[in-house]
Amino acid sequence: MKTPRVTLDQWRTLQAVIDHGGFAQAAEALHRSQSSVSYAIGRLQEQLGVPLLRIEGRRAVLTEAGEMLLRRSRQLVKQAAQLEELAHHMEQGWEAEVRLVVDAAYPSARLIRALTDFMPQSRGCRIRLREEVLSGVEDVLLDGTADVAISGLNINGYLGAELGTVEFVAVAHAAHPLHVLQRKLSTQDLEAHLQIVVRDSGQRQPRDSGWLGAEQRWTVGSLATSVSFVASGLGFAWLPRHLIQRELADGILKPLPLIQGAIRRPRFYLYTNKDKTLGPATQILIQLIKTYDADPSAPARG
């Protein structure tokens, strides 16, 4: 790639000439002499080899090429200013990126509200969001590749801040044989049918959370796949209510009438990287997550 010959200052000067209506006005706005402004524009056109301005009466007017290049240069100057601002924030301890790992069962609507509010406060800080299942969140946190983690598990060696619960419902397709029995169901009833289980994405100590020891078990890679399988009549599963609200409302899925354990409400926890000092962006994000977890119905203010 060729090294640019044109400087950001030259683009700013061209912008000032157009925005302020002429060379004299641009010189006044930039606190420079009119001759230096004229020289900068002349040098700019010479370096580009394209005429950017033409004189009509006493006004400098953009050529067609000038209009296109000026439009692009505004983006360039804006990005450069944002880059300098980001460097300034980083000098003050502001993070360039926050790495967030979340259990896939945690309601994304709560995260979306938190991130919507975070965006105007982020000062250019990026969010790297990663979804894992069960102990997969723990693995990422232990590896040190997450700044903030949300998990439904108690992670040894970490003090987690309590978040809310997520409701899991035992469900099957409305036409599933378990519903045909039309009575309360026992564990023995379930064991005779196919159970759909989501694979734990962790590698250290993967868990068979929720598995009853059914004769038939299909393990899938995501909650979305589990919902699709159960909604197609392939088996039963405990699924987060927030992921199956439509299927329940449409009567595609029906809760299983279990003697006990039809509803599970595991509590989720927020963990932070204990080997890293929390920066201001991370602290803001954590507070927003807690706020919208405590009141999931609250509209985002961003």
Describe the SSE topology.
Blueprint: H1 8-20, H2 23-30, H3 34-48, E1 53-56, E2 59-62, H4 64-91, E3 97-103, H5 108-118, E4 126-132, H6 135-142, E5 148-151, E6 161-165, E7 168-173, H7 177-180, H8 187-191, E8 195-198, E9 217-220, H9 223-231, E10 236-240, H10 245-249, E11 253-255, E12 263-264, E13 267-272, H11 280-294
Parallel strand pairs: 3-4, 3-5, 8-9
Antiparallel strand pairs: 1-2, 5-13, 6-13, 7-10, 7-11, 7-12
Helix pairs in contact: 1-2, 1-3, 1-4, 2-3, 5-11
Q: Could you name the key traits of this structure?
A:
alpha/beta, 5-stranded mixed β-sheet, 4-stranded antiparallel β-sheet, Arc Repressor Mutant, subunit A, D-Maltodextrin-Binding Protein, domain 2
Task: Write a compact overview of the structure shown.
The protein has 302 residues and is an alpha/beta fold. It has 11 helices and 13 strands. α1 packs across α2, α2 crosses α3 (34-48) and α5 (108-118) packs across α11 (280-294).
What features would you describe in this structure?
- The chain is an alpha/beta fold and 302 residues long.
- The chain folds into three domains: 8-91, Winged helix-like DNA-binding domain superfamily/Winged helix DNA-binding domain (Arc Repressor Mutant, subunit A), CATH 1.10.10; 97-165 and 267-294, 3-Layer(aba) Sandwich (D-Maltodextrin-Binding Protein, domain 2), CATH 3.40.190.10; 168-264, D-Maltodextrin-Binding Protein, domain 2.
- 40% of the residues lie in helices and 20% in strands.
- The strands form four sheets. A five-stranded mixed beta sheet has the order 4-3-5-13-6.
- Strand 3, helix 5 and strand 4 (126-132) form a beta-alpha-beta unit.
- Helix 1 (8-20) packs across helix 3 (34-48).
- The longest helix is centred in the N-terminal third of the chain and has 28 residues, at 64-91.
- The radius of gyration is 29 Å and the shape is elongated.
- The chain starts with 7 loop residues before the first helix and ends in an 8-residue tail after the last helix.
- The mean pLDDT is 87.
